[in-house]
Amino acid sequence: MFSVRGRGAVRLAAATLVSGLVAAGTIATAGPALADEGAPGTGGVTAKLLGGITEGGKVVIKEKDGGTWPVGGGLFTMQVEGGGTLQTYCIDLRTEAKHDFDYKEVGWSESSLHNNENAGKILWILENAYPKFSAEALGEKLGVDLSKDEAAAGTQAAIWTFSDDVKATPKSSDAAKLTKFLLKEAVKLEEPEASLSLAPSTVAGKAGEKLGPITVTTNAEKAKLQAAPGAPAGVQVVDKDGKPVTEAKNGDQVYFDVPAGTADGTAELTAEATTKVSLGRAFVSIDGPSQTLILAGSSDSTVTAKASASWAKKGAVPSVSVAKDCAKGGLEVIAGNQGDEDWTFDLKGTSYTVPAGETKTIRVPLAEDEAYKFTITGPNGFEETFEGVLDCKTATPTPKPSETPSTTPSATPTTPSTTTGGTIGDTTGGTTGTTTTGGGDLAETGSSSATPMIAGIAVALVVIGGGAVFFLRRKKTASQ
Question: What DSSP state is assigned to residue 340?
């Protein structure tokens, strides 16, 4: 079932329009292929966003129309599933960060960086700023006394300039010097390697064959490999020469060796590695719309990836891989059939047929921030479920209050699970809870250009009275 959760009225309307197009989809047919070279894989770190900003300070955002607003910018902490911690910056300024949401490591093509010509410069900033280099080292280079909070705020401001196309300036003059230096010196670097990935995620064939290849991509020295419990007797993970393998390095290709005579069935391969995630890897929410993050630091973390194989003596033998296609706004579903009969399956109410020995690429349009979940089934117990959220764009500036006079500020308090609220977590001063920095109302990387105006209206409601404000807003609307 597909559901839609937007960032505003415009995106909700777009979601409704695009959702109506999903059923049709688009299909491209390819010739026989046991394992599509470009087929998407599985793997990467999964981590939970723990809370608000741990190190940072106030940054002033200047929009292209000249409007300005304050926001808290700095480092977030994430807890890796399986062990380890991550430090990340925001690359989606106007979207709220939801505490306790789970995030998935993805490549730039599956995030808002997919069409950002400055993505490589963001990576350079991460490689040359805080926390890769200490605040003391950066301060010494600039000739200033730089604190950790200032170093984090200065680094975040530089990143926002390239990720959200704004002018971001820290309130601290020393932090602003760091931002200016980073923007001046930044050059484009190449996208970093995944922590661990297996591609394609499914392969198929007949007993008596090697099923694959499955390519291992990792920044670890080696990844451990094993057939998951429950695999039929005799099924092994082997290299191209048919020799059993229990580990692989980056770029290695492995196969499922299914002995002749093995009953129709399936098997799963599990890969695991302990590694530091590469700086610059993007993290997108898998629980719902939340701001996209980019990795700035990593402890040793446990990461896993899986791939599966299916085989049969006769009939259809399916395989399916799914990946986000941010360039085209949706999903790319690659369905293969290595059997000797056609395979027909259902995808969101529409039937698709893959002829024997062929693959089909089905493009499923989605709206930005649209959640998806679907299951594809086939013969011999084949079943694959895919779930996630399409998050491929940074949020655009919201209309100014003067342009939408009928909008009334909400009096409902912000929920604790959201980073708006005017505080930055203090992990350096020995206090518990949160503290407000810089004075005034300070949103944490989830505000909008309307924030100062909303605060002013809220005060007016208290002093003048709700009825008078409503009358004045209606009168202003009429005059416009």
Answer: S
